[in-house]
């Protein structure tokens, strides 16, 4: 599940959506559609609210070694959303347990694409320091276990 992204400076984001890792292919498609429809992070730009909407992206893949060992955890990432809506400069801020889920989280977030935002004057908007936490939970990823 993704936490609540935040942006420093005069932009503030809140995001009520979640992503679960390791689902079957058909549930992945359903979750991505729901994610696209229901997702939204609100960017406050002056007196106008804009929604930072995730338009596409992969879910994180639960690492097999972690699944086999029964390990759960989370990874907090920081990144920039470019004027074209691509994710850039993704870095791990914190992970627990360290380095177990980092690559899966990085790969997923690098695939995300947001619908571009524009300022009131029409100029493209770049959002820096967006923070997301991806939680890896076995019961959510593999409900049949």
CATH superfamily: TonB
Number of helices: 4
**Strand order across the largest sheet:** 5-4-9
The radius of gyration computed from the alpha-carbon positions, rounded to a whole number of angstroms, is 15 Å
At a glance:
By secondary structure, the protein is an alpha+beta fold.
List the helices and strands and how they pair.
Elements: H1 25-38, E1 41-45, E2 48-52, E3 54-56, H2 64-69, E4 73-81, E5 87-96, H3 102-111, E6 113-114, E7 117-118, E8 124-125, E9 127-136, H4 138-141
Antiparallel strand pairs: 1-2, 3-6, 4-5, 4-9, 7-8
Describe this structure in words.
With 145 residues, this protein is of the alpha+beta class. The protein has a single domain (25-138), classed as 2-Layer Sandwich (TolA/TonB C-terminal domain). It is built from 4 helices and 9 strands; from the N terminus they run αβββαββαββββα. The chain has helices spanning 25-38, 64-69, 102-111, 138-141; strands at 41-45, 48-52, 54-56, 73-81, 87-96, 113-114, 117-118, 124-125, 127-136. The strands form 4 sheets. Strands 5-4-9 form a 3-stranded antiparallel β-sheet. Strands 1-2 form a two-stranded antiparallel ribbon. Strands 3-6 form a two-stranded antiparallel sheet. The two termini are 18 Å apart. The model is unreliable at 1-42 (pLDDT under 50).
């Amino acid at each position: 599940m993704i936490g609540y992204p935040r942006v420093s400076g005069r932009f503030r984001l809140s995001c009520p959506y979640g992503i679960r890792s390791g689902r079957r292919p058909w549930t992945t498609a359903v979750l991505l559609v729901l994610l696209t429809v229901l997702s939204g992070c609100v960017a406050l730009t002056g007196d106008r609210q804009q929604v930072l909407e995730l338009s596409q992206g992969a879910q994180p893949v639960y690492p097999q070694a972690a699944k086999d060992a029964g390990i759960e955890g989370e990874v907090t990432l920081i990144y920039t959303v470019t004027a074209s809506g691509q994710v850039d400069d993704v870095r791990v801020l914190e992970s627990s347990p360290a380095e177990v889920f980092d690559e899966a989280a990085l790969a997923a977030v690098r695939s995300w694409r947001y619908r571009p935002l524009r300022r009131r004057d029409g100029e493209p908007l770049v959002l820096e320091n967006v923070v997301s936490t991806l939680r890896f939970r076995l019961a959510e990823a593999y409900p049949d276990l």
